[in-house]
Amino acid sequence: MQKDILAKLITLEMGKLLAQSYGEITLCADILNYDVNNAETFLENLLFGTRLWGACLYASRPWHFFG
Question: Which of 1, 23, 24, 56 has its CA 20 to 30 A from that of 10?
């Protein structure tokens, strides 16, 4: 399962406990699901010429932006 591989990688690279790594994966997945489910609302007022450009900018924001 990818979640197991990712959690082990986070633990090795960042020194987090394995349980914390699983939690981080879940948090990131929840944030992405929220963004996907609300993308149209978030992007409707952006004036980038195309929605694709706005979506790319929105999706590439830094992870630490969330607090």
Answer: 56
Rounded Cα–Cα distance for residues 67 and 57 (Å): 18
Burial zone of 43 (CB within 10 Å; 0-12 exposed, 13-18 middle, 19+ buried): middle
The 10s digit of each residue's pLDDT in 49-61 is 555 555 555 555 5
pLDDT (tens digit per residue) in 8-56: 999 999 999 999 999 999 988 888 888 888 877 877 766 555 555 555 5
Length of the chain: 67
Q: First and final CA of the chain: distance in angstroms?
A: 28
Burial profile 13-23: b = 16 or more Cβ within 10 angstroms, e = fewer = eeeeeeeebbe
